[in-house]
Design goal:
The protein is of the alpha+beta class and about 100 residues long. It contains 4 helices and 3 strands, in the order E-E-H-E-H-H-H. The protein has a 3-stranded antiparallel β-sheet, with helices on one face. Strand 1 and strand 2 form a beta hairpin.
Amino acid sequence: MKAWIVNDADNYYATVVFAETRNKAKVEALVTDCCEDMEYKDIRPRRFKEADCRYRGKRELDWDDDSDRLFLIQHGWGCEDPDECLCISCVGRTECEKYKEMQA
């Protein structure tokens, strides 16, 4: 199964879904929190080969799963508005660029 980063044209919110093709990734994206209010034509999938190995039978990577979160943080993802109180208990804080900036 192939991993795809899906988002809108503004690249503001994104998620990672698993599908065999680009078009199937767009269909999978339609039922995610990230893309549920988007139109099919507005969803922009792009391959994320590094995440192919993360497929475990689920539709998308789960930010609330510590293992998925750490993987995403290691690949440049982060919280929209980091909160130092929440960051302290985050599994990825030592690798998170936004957390490091808050500590500087």
